[in-house]
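Aim 2 progress update. The chain analyzed this quarter is reproduced below.
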Amino acid sequence: MPRNGPRTASVDWDDVRVFGSVARAASLARGARDAGVDRSTASRRIAALERAIGARLFLRTREGLRLSRAGDRLFEHAERMAGEARALERSATEGDGGAVRGLVRIATTEALAAMLVQRGLLELTIAHPGLELELLGANRVLDLTRGEADLALRVTRVDQPSLRVRRVARLPFAVVAGEPYVSRRGRPRSERELEGHDVLLHSGELATLPETRWLESRPGVRVVLRSNSMIALLAAAVHGVGVTVIAGHAAETELGLVRLFDLPQIPPRPLYLAVHPDAAARPAVRVVAEHLAEVVGRPRTAAPSASR
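Predicted structure tokens:
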């Protein structure tokens, strides 16, 4: 005999996965990209999920997408489901007695991502052939508690009590320039000698950094480039466009920059390594975390010479 009562539509886990990505990003386009689908596919999957549960999941506001009451309740379940899925993946890939294998995702800034590669992060993939690394370099801070990454290397302290956080380095500041610039314009060796020189500055969300304010306020300097991309500024410096300030002790040897003089008046920038305890249970994550700490803590080697 047929059953009485309303039929309940089945919920597709992939729809829930895409919904969770969009909810975390508060943006359909960015959430689709994080989920590995295009925008139209993400929209279709969310619409299918809304039909399945019979409720609207998002409200559109001027600030972007906002979860509805039903969406907020479903998001809690989606996060738990995502956590269980990650645990299942770990069990499948690391079920052979703690082998260092599987994907480890590292969130950091664009500039630090490049530095990690230059300083030997990928040596781990030679020592552990089953290990895959993903570097997520962006100024947007990813949320470890929501599984957006396994580890985070950050220049600002993380205050979330659920995370394990430790300081792994202190990066001193220095004024630098490329060899072509020094050969053409001479080598300033102090703050007073910067007058008349071309400088490269951060812009956008990086414009308030203390090193940016310091360099911009030097008397007689000429700003030739502003950018919110540290990679672009370093490339301009390497190619001899102007003088800039960096935090760290490896740019000379790894990028071909000349260290003009140090800036002890600006406190060294701390580097923090954060990991969620659930991720830290994976042998692969623990090995990558220790290697990251070693990589960023390596001492500076001698800088190349420059003509006067």
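The radius of gyration is 24 Å. The longest strand covers residues 164-171. These observations will guide the mutagenesis experiments scheduled for the next reporting period.
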